[in-house]
Design brief:
By secondary structure, the chain is of the alpha/beta class. It has 8 helices and 7 strands. The protein is globular, with a radius of gyration of 18 Å.
């Protein structure tokens, strides 16, 4: 059998938040790199790898066969629509999508209202929209970290449903629960600031929040 690959920092951070012996749903699995790696390292007991497109899903099957990763069900479908209660999923990873798309996937599924479910979310863009959605929709952000991979900075959010709206100020969606003493988290915020600087050129309503964010980090 071929030697197992290593995950890049982005997926490794997602993997680090998956609980031991979890039953995993990997939404938008692409090549199934994450569930295959987790299974081969004995970190999960079962996985559903789903994707909205058949091509990436087939690539995932090939990858699983190559590394003889058993206990993965490959399912074609959007979001969490392929998951049922019988799967007894404990941890969900939704990575590599826009924050607004991740928010919609969570909103569309009743499964995400299970208070024992871990949601591990890695938005490629619009993380502030995802965080704002989580807060107003009864989800608690339990942990948030950042990492750098292939020259880009990413954030990963661990959340669970609590059923209570979390009141936050206008800064929180951009900062979340990041520890700004961490270099990757500080870099992520700097990138958020650059993004807002560009948006504020066309719309001055972003200037107040931009100025507040600048006070949080040394540029």
């Amino acid at each position: 059998m071929d030697k197992l690959y290593s995950l890049d920092n982005r997926l490794q951070l997602c993997a680090s938040l998956v609980r031991p012996s979890a039953r995993l749903a990997d939404v938008g699995t692409d090549h199934a790199y994450l569930p295959v790696w987790l299974l081969k390292h004995g970190k999960i007991s079962f996985a559903v790898a789903s994707d909205i497109n058949s091509g990436p899903l087939e690539s995932g099957r090939v990858n699983a066969q190559k590394y003889k990763a058993e206990y993965i069900d490959f399912r074609l479908g959007a979001g969490l629509s392929t998951i049922s209660d019988d799967d007894k999923i404990t941890d969900v990873v939704i990575a590599g999508m826009g924050g607004e798309i991740i928010a919609q996937i969570i909103a569309d599924s009743k499964l995400t209202r299970d208070k024992n479910l871990n949601l591990i979310l890695q938005p490629m863009t619009k993380s502030e929209e995802l965080i704002a959605f989580l807060c107003k929709s009864g989800f608690e952000i339990r942990e948030q970290k950042c990492t750098e991979s292939h020259g880009k900075c990413y954030t990963v959010i661990l959340a669970s449903y609590r059923g209570e709206v979390v009141q936050v100020d206008e800064v929180f969606p951009y900062v979340g629960k990041l520890d700004l003493s961490d270099e990757h988290s500080a870099l992520f915020l700097k990138n958020q600031i650059k993004h807002l600087e560009n948006k504020s050129k066309g719309d001055e309503k972003f200037l107040p929040i931009l100025n507040k964010l600048k006070k949080l980090v040394i540029l």
